[in-house]
Structure formats: structure tokens, C-alpha cells
UniProtKB/TrEMBL annotation:
It comes from the Bacteria. InterPro entries: ABC3_permease_C, MacB_PCD, Macrolide_Exporter_MacB. It comes from Fibrella forsythiae. Belongs to the ABC-4 integral membrane protein family. This is ABC transporter permease. It is found in: Cell membrane. The chain crosses the membrane at residues 20-41, 289-309, 345-366, 378-402, 439-459, 681-706, 736-756, 768-787. It is a multi-pass membrane protein. Residues 21-199 form the MacB-like periplasmic core domain.
């Protein structure tokens, strides 16, 4: 019986090749995109779930009350872990970890049999490193190729991934080998762990001993609880004897003991590992965004199924006699249902082959353009096969059941007489509703496309208040204090190059680099510290003119290697309670144990962070030992030549470091990776939704033309023009698309308005965006309908009238 169903189904599809092609392609695109979005959702919801103690792992974070609201950070004080161990030994496991961004390592030269090799440098721009203690590996699961973490309690030790071991030494048998971390601290390899096979937010390739931090940073741990670094993290595992409720109860006493001056304004909440990945306060991914993309995937499948239903019901009249004959010959309703569902299953099976191709191609694109969002392969895992089977079953039912019920429900006498009406064959009303639904989905995506593209264009072209073009940043070695003589030598070598027209040193690089340092100050003669925490930045006297920052009052900083004078921005002036910039000139900023600094100038506000954040109060001063970035203005032209010359000069001055450079506009662009990723996804899926919708329209028009051939001939004989016949076919769909727009616009406005609220600086979400989306959809639909309509309108009416 099943073989008979599929044989007949195959013959039917072969007779209706165009309709089959439209259905297979549309369903294939929809299912393929749904699989891609399933991959994205699965990746994010499975992050770090492979750890055995996943449900019991927590991170202790910091939250500070300020007049402007809570300030939260994933970091804790450096001595937080030791204090917690001492006060609460009942906590199962506790590990402190210091993240090490963009590690640089040197493999020392080897000397064998009188021959020697050069040191090999590796700058891991995309990888992360860390310093921790053995307890970390009791919290998180690692598999070991060689050695283990037991010796990580000793200073000068290191464990690394198998991939890194092969890169540095050519083998995973690397125990006992030596690496120099950031070119200054030697570490012995005591363990090699298996490469990360699962999704994780902690993909550390090199993990050094926390006991090495004193040598690495060249300073002892800061014993004060008032100093919190965002890269210093604390993880614990809890059991039934000590729960988050116990910690919330004990926290006031802990604060009173270790941070008595900030009991009211400080908290150290426990955040479960299961929530960290989606916590946007800690650089997580928005769960609403991920779920929205999943809904888009379902919408695309629904859109493709609508095509199938529309075309199947439209063709129902052509198959009326077939149904009548089958019923007269004894076929039951259930047998006919089985036959038509079998045809649907065959189409879905063929569509699944197309979907796998779409998925594979989309996966390769995602790995290239989406910054690692799909950095895994999961073919043929049980959960994926189950999802595919569920998706196929759902599509077969969604697309096939209604048309099958319509066809199987024809009365044989009426069917054989050829008197099946449009209403009996599924009805225009149902098809109109499905077309409206289909294009409402498409227009929501198109509106999203226009909004995201407009916001990204606004972000990229907004005047941020400083120069970006042809500006290059070079990272200096990550030493506790910079060598001033080396800095002077490098400046002299760089400024002697004809292609370098400006040079400046600063704490981190350009504005909007993402590096911020928040502190507390006391202003002038006021007795108490300010309740707000301004950002501080160390810059030299060349920084302001180099980046084209504007002074609204006072003057620039004088040359100095130490903190002597300060500049503030307009936001700082307002925060201090003054209405005019001139009012703060000559007043003093007192910062901890540092010298008091007179304010000598006020800078016009400029964006120091991304456009998601408002411009906050800031002050700037000179401090050469804290400079970690060299900023250069280059002449436009042969960048490669001058960069090569700068690298030679840098390696001459800093032979044990790595030449790490980046253009300022590239750094700014990196700040909006999530938005760019969202833009690419929305663009892709909006295009797919429109393509699927237009394929369905084309199929429906094709059917309508075949059904109205004689009518077209009569109209032409009576004098109808080609334009009037075009309008005959287009008016129906234009009205439906306009109605779909009325449904799509409010929903799209709400969703995109929610997204735009994450930006302090954003586009005006006005009527123009909706008009663009509507016109784009109408134009694409009209072109689709018109192609087949023009062909019909140009046919000789004599042939049209003889067609029946």
C-alpha cells in the first residue's frame, strides 16, 4: 500500500513539475533556515551544560549602588576568595581566576648539537588565557592528555590545550617545556588538556598558576576590598549544606567584616552558571534575541507551508475527477487521505535534501561572518536527529493535512461532473488569509531589516567627537610600569618616519576602545568624596590635538610624565553641579594617595564608550608609567609600508613583545559585533521570507492564468489593454499585501523599538521606514505577479478562446 502511495505521488509530481519545484524549493529554504536557527539556539542554551556540576556552579559578582543606579561587574576584589574560604569553609569548592586577554607567549630558542633556533612569538588575539588554582578544575570538567592541574598550586607553572601544545611545540607531549608569558614570566608546562569540544564561555587556551600573578604583574595582591577588577572572578560550587539563601543571610556580616565603609552600597550576589550566558550585564547574550530568532525560524517554516497549502488547494479542482474515479472504484476517505499525505511526505523528503544543502552552506557562511556563533558541528547527534524528525513530521501535518482533507472530501458525483466550485476546493477566502499571513511575516522581517541597517549606518557615521580616519593604535607590552626610556626611543623612531604625522601615548588607545577605569574622587575643598564615580584616563599632552578633541574652556595639559594637571569633560562639570565650564578651572581633583591636580581645561563631550551608553563624567591626566597604547596619525596611502616600518622599530625596542596594531575605525566597528551579526541574520532571513512568498505568488498566478485563459481572450477581443489585464491580476495581491502591512507594522514597531532602547543614541523610528518596507514588498510582489501576467496578456486571443 505504501509503495503504491509513493509511486502515484511520484507520477503526480512528475506531471506537475513546476508546482513540485516551487514546493520543494520553498519548503527546503524554510526548513534549512529553521535548522540554522535551531543550531544557533542549541549552541546558546547548551553553553557549559557539559560540566557535571553545572547546576551547582555559581559566580560571585559585585554590585555597587550609585546615584545613577546600580553599577555591576563580574569582578571581585583580589583577596575576596581567601576571605570567603576563611569565613565559610563549608562552601564545597572555591576558585579565583584572573582572565588574561589576548595572551602573548614566547617559545624560547632551543640549542641542540651546536645549532640554535630563534625565539618563536605567538600573539593569541582571538584566544583567552587565565591564572587560577587547582580547585578550578574541581568545579569545571577537563579531560587530560598529559599531566594535570595538581602542580598548578606552585608559581611558574602552566597547563594548556592540546591545540596550543601542538602549535608551540609540535606535539602534545609538552610536559616540562618552558613558555615565557607576555615575554617576561617563565612558566613550566605541567598539564595538557583536551581541546574544548562543547560550547563554553571560558575557552581558556593557556591557564597559569595564580601563584605566578605577583611575578606576572610585578606587584603584590591588593589587600583592599575597595579595589575591584572586572577581570578577577570567583567561582564556587554549593551543596545542600550551604545554599544561596545561606549566603544572602551571611552577606551583611561578611561586608561588615571586610568592607565596613561600604556595607550599604555594596553587594556580592551569587549568579548561577545557568544564567551567566544570558546576563547582558556581564557581556552575555540577550535571551530575548535568541528566542526571537527561533521564532523567525518557525515563521519561515510556516511561510513555506503556506505556499504548499495555497498551491495544493488551488490545484484541487484539477484533481477533482481523479478523486471521483477513486471513490467510485472503492477508495475510502482514509485511503485518499493517506494518498495525499504520502504526496506531501515525498515533497517534504525532497525538501529536506534541499534543506540540508541550505543548512551546510549557511553554516559555512555563519562560521565566516558571525564571529564564531556556530563554531561547532553536530550532525547525527540524537537531539538533532530528533529535532529533524519532529520538524519533518510537523511540516507534513501543517502543509499536507488541510489540502488532503479538502481533496478527500469531494463528493464523487459532483467531482465526476466537473462541478467542483472554488469554495469546495479550499476557497479564495482561506488562500487570501494564508497570503496575508505569509506577507505579514515577510514585512515584519523587512521592517526589521530596514531598522537594523539604519541604526548600524547611524552608528558608523555618527560624529563621535574625535578623529578616526587613518589613526593606528599599537599596544605596548603589558608591564606593571612602562620603561620611559624605551617609550622615548620608540616615539623618536616612529615620528622620524615620513608617513607618521602625529604620535601620542595613552592608557588604552583611542576613545571608544572599550577600556574604562572608574574611580572615586574628592573635589576641591569639599570634605567628602563625590557620590558618583567618574572614569579616569591617562593621556599625554599630544592626545587632545591628535584626536581632534575640542576644548570649550581653559587649555591643554602641559608635558609631564606624572599626574600634575587634569582635564575634565562637560559631563563632569554638570555632575559637579556647575553650569559653565569656566567655573571649574583652577579647582582641584583629589584622588586617593595621588597628588592633587588642578583642572586646567574642559573638553567638549565625546563618546568614550559605545553608543549604547550615555557620555559619563571623566577626567584625564598624564601618567607615563600607565600608558599602554601608542596612537599614530598616518598619511593616507601605502599603509602596509609604514606598518612594516613600525613593526621593525617596535621589535628593535621591545624584542620580547609582539607587534599588536589595529586601526581605530576597526576597533570601533568591533564594539558593535552583536548588532552586525543581528543585521546579517535579519537581512538573510528577510530575503528568504520574501523569496518564499514570491515563489508562492508565482505559483498562484500561474494557476490563475491557466484557469482564466478564456476570460483573458474575451477581454482582449473586447478591447482590454495589457495594462488592464496586469491590473486584473495585481489588484488582488496588492490589496492583500496592504492588509498584511496593517497587521505587521504594529508588531514590528514594538519589537524593533524594544531593540533600539538598548542604545542611548539611536535613529528616529519614523513613518519613512514603514513606507520603505511596504514599497519594497509591493514592488517585489508586483514584479513576481507581472511576469506571468504579461505572458498571458500577450497571447493571441484566438488561441486563448480555443484553449477550452
Amino acid at each position: 500500500m505504501l509503495q503504491s502511495y509513493f509511486t502515484i505521488a511520484f507520477r503526480t509530481l512528475r506531471r506537475n513539475r513546476l508546482y513540485a519545484l516551487i514546493n520543494v524549493t520553498g519548503l527546503g529554504l524554510g526548513i534549512g533556515c529553521a535548522l540554522l536557527l535551531f543550531a544557533l539556539v542549541r549552541y546558546h542554551f547548551r553553553t557549559d551544560t557539559h560540566h557535571t556540576k553545572y547546576d551547582r556552579i555559581y559566580q560571585l559578582t559585585s554590585a555597587f549602588k550609585t546615584p545613577d543606579g546600580d553599577f555591576v561587574t563580574p569582578g571581585v576584589p583580589e583577596t575576596f576568595g581567601q576571605a570567603l574560604k576563611t569565613d565559610h569553609p563549608e562552601i564545597e569548592h572555591l576558585a579565583m581566576i584572573e582572565e588574561w586577554e589576548g595572551p602573548m607567549v614566547i617559545v624560547p630558542a632551543a640549542t641542540t648539537a651546536g645549532t640554535s633556533t630563534l625565539d618563536k612569538k605567538f600573539k593569541e588575539a582571538e584566544a583567552k588565557g587565565a591564572f587560577t588554582e587547582p580547585a578550578y578544575f574541581q568545579i569545571f570538567d577537563y579531560n587530560w592528555v598529559a599531566g594535570g592541574p595538581a602542580d598548578l598550586s606552585q608559581p611558574g607553572t602552566l597547563v594548556l590545550s592540546a591545540k596550543s601544545a601542538i602549535k608551540y611545540f609540535g606535539t602534545t607531549n609538552a610536559l616540562g617545556r618552558i613558555l615565557k608569558l607576555d615575554g617576561r614570566t617563565s612558566a613550566r608546562v605541567v598539564g595538557v588538556f583536551t581541546d574544548y569540544a562543547d560550547n563554553t564561555d571560558y575557552p581558556y587556551e593557556l591557564i597559569g598558576s595564580r601563584a605566578s600573578l605577583k611575578d606576572f604583574f610585578g606587584r603584590p595582591f591588593n589587600e583592599s576590598f575597595t579595589n575591584t577588577n572586572s577581570s578577577t572572578h570567583c567561582f564556587v560550587t554549593l551543596n545542600d549544606t550551604y545554599t544561596p539563601a545561606n549566603w544572602n543571610r551571611d552577606l551583611p556580616a561578611f561586608l561588615k567584616k571586610h568592607n565596613p565603609n561600604n556595607v550599604k552600597n555594596t553587594r556580592y550576589p551569587l549568579t548561577p552558571l545557568s544564567e551567566l550566558h544570558f546576563d547582558t550585564d556581564f557581556y552575555g547574550v540577550s535571551k530575548n534575541l535568541i528566542l526571537s530568532l527561533f521564532v523567525i525560524g518557525l515563521f519561515l517554516v510556516i511561510t513555506a507551508c503556506i505556499n504548499f497549502v495555497n498551491l495544493a488547494t488551488a490545484q484541487a479542482m484539477n484533481r477533482a475527477r481523479e478523486v471521483g474515479v477513486r471513490k467510485v472504484m472503492g477508495s475510502t476517505r482514509n485511503q485518499l487521505l493517506g494518498q495525499f499525505m504520502g504526496e506531501t511526505a515525498l515533497i517534504v523528503l525532497l525538501a529536506m535534501m534541499v534543506a540540508i544543502g541550505v543548512f551546510s552552506y549557511g553554516l559555512s557562511l555563519a562560521q565566516t561572518y558571525l564571529h564564531g556563533a556556530f563554531r561547532f558541528t553536530f550532525y547525527f547527534t540524537p537531539s538533532v536527529l530528533g529535532w529533524v524528525a519532529l520538524l519533518m513530521g510537523g511540516v507534513i501535518l501543517l502543509a499536507g493535512l488541510y489540502p488532503a482533507l479538502v481533496l478527500a472530501g469531494f463528493r464523487p458525483v459532483v467531482a465526476l461532473a466537473g462541478k467542483i466550485t472554488t469554495r469546495q476546493a479550499g476557497g479564495f477566502t482561506v488562500r487570501r488569509g494564508l497570503v496575508v499571513t505569509q506577507f505579514a511575516i515577510s514585512q515584519m522581517l523587512v521592517i526589521g531589516l530596514v531598522v537594523v541597517a539604519s541604526q548600524l549606518n547611524y552608528v558608523q557615521n555618527k560624529d563621535l567627537g574625535f578623529k578616526q580616519n587613518a589613526m593606528l593604535t599599537i599596544r605596548l607590552p603589558s608591564t606593571p610600569e612602562q620603561d620611559l626610556s624605551k617609550m622615548a626611543t620608540f616615539r623618536n623612531l616612529a615620528t622620524a618616519m615620513p608617513d607618521v604625522t602625529g604620535f601620542s601615548y595613552s592608557m588604552s588607545g583611542p576613545p571608544q576602545s572599550g577600556w574604562v577605569s572608574q574611580t572615586t574622587i574628592r573635589f576641591d575643598t569639599r570634605a567628602e568624596e563625590e557620590k558618583f564615580g567618574p572614569q579616569q584616563a591617562w593621556i599625554d599632552d599630544k592626545y587632545v590635538p591628535l584626536f581632534g578633541l575640542k576644548l570649550v574652556a581653559g587649555r591643554n595639559l602641559n608635558p609631564s610624565d606624572t599626574m600634575r594637571e587634569a582635564l575634565v569633560n562637560e559631563a563632569m562639570v554638570r555632575k559637579l553641579g556647575f553650569s559653565k565650564p569656566e567655573q571649574v578651572l583652577g579647582k582641584y581633583i583629589h584622588k586617593g594617595g595621588s597628588p592633587s591636580m588642578p583642572i586646567v581645561g574642559v573638553l567638549k563631550d565625546f563618546n568614550q564608550s559605545d553608543l549604547k551608553s550615555a557620555i559619563g563624567p571623566s577626567f584625564f591626566s598624564t601618567s607615563a608609567k600607565n600608558y599602554h597604547g601608542a596612537n599614530l596619525q598616518l598619511q593616507t596611502g601605502n599603509y602596509q609600508r609604514v606598518i612594516s616600518q613600525l613593526e621593525t622599530a617596535y621589535n628593535r625596542v621591545y624584542p620580547e613583545s609582539y607587534f599588536d596594531h589595529q586601526f581605530v575605525d576597526d576597533q570601533i566597528e568591533e564594539r558593535y559585533q552583536e548588532e552586525q551579526t543581528m543585521g546579517r541574520l535579519v537581512n538573510f532571513f528577510a530575503a528568504v521570507a520574501l523569496l518564499i512568498g514570491c515563489m508562492g505568488l508565482y505559483g498562484l498566478v500561474l494557476f490563475m492564468v491557466s484557469q482564466r485563459t478564456k476570460e483573458i481572450g474575451v477581454r482582449k477581443v473586447l478591447g482590454a489593454s495589457v495594462a488592464s489585464i496586469l491590473w486584473l491580476f495585481n489588484q488582488e495581491f496588492v490589496r492583500l499585501i496592504a492588509f498584511a502591512f496593517l497587521l505587521a507594522a504594529p508588531a514590528a514597531w514594538w519589537v524593533m523599538n524594544q531593540w533600539l532602547e538598548s542604545f542611548q543614541y539611536r535613529i528616529n523610528f519614523g513613518p519613512a521606514i514603514f513606507v520603505i518596507a511596504l514599497l519594497a514588498t509591493v514592488v517585489v510582489a508586483v514584479l513576481t505577479v507581472s511576469y506571468q501576467s504579461i505572458k498571458a496578456a500577450l497571447v493571441n486571443p484566438v488561441k486563448s478562446l480555443r484553449s477550452e
